[in-house]
Design brief:
The protein has three domains: 53 residues, no CATH class; 57 residues; 30 residues. 40% of the residues lie in helices and 10% in strands. It is built from four helices and four strands, in the order ββββαααα. It has a two-stranded antiparallel sheet with strand order 1-2. The chain has a two-stranded antiparallel sheet with strand order 3-4. Helix 2 packs antiparallel against helix 3. The mean pLDDT is 81.
Length: 168
Amino acid sequence: MFPHRNIHKYTRTSPDGKTHIQIDHVLIYGRWPSITLDVQTFRGTVCNADHYLVATKVRERLAGSKQAAQKFAVERFNLRQLSELEVRKQYQIKISNRSAVLGNSNDSEDINMALENVKENFITSAKDSLGLFELKQHKPWCNEEYLRFLDQRKQAKIHGYKSQTKAM
């Protein structure tokens, strides 16, 4: 699997010094076989055994949290409003008005600055006419009534334990 000279593939030498065999192996989880970069033996290690040290180079893969990525999301606009004709026309008018103002500016200005102005034009027009997309607020799974019930249950258990110890 990994190209090495034969002396680096053998994991054991018999006591006569002539027979070399490969009996030590590395097991890899079948779902991620590509994490193993290299496997080889090191013959020079002194460990008072007739086996050689087997070393494996492994690539570690870490996954980021999806919830953490969602916290830093960019502002999202309510694009469903564009399906309404009045809102769409209002958005187009705001963009054209802001573009006309930008068109009158100096042509020799930096291209990056011009791109930034166009981007700002679209963002402010969208905020004014479309508004921001509101994420749905989920209800908490436990309400005040449920918490009161848990407290009553806890108090009843404590009272039950005290009455059992008094009866003994």
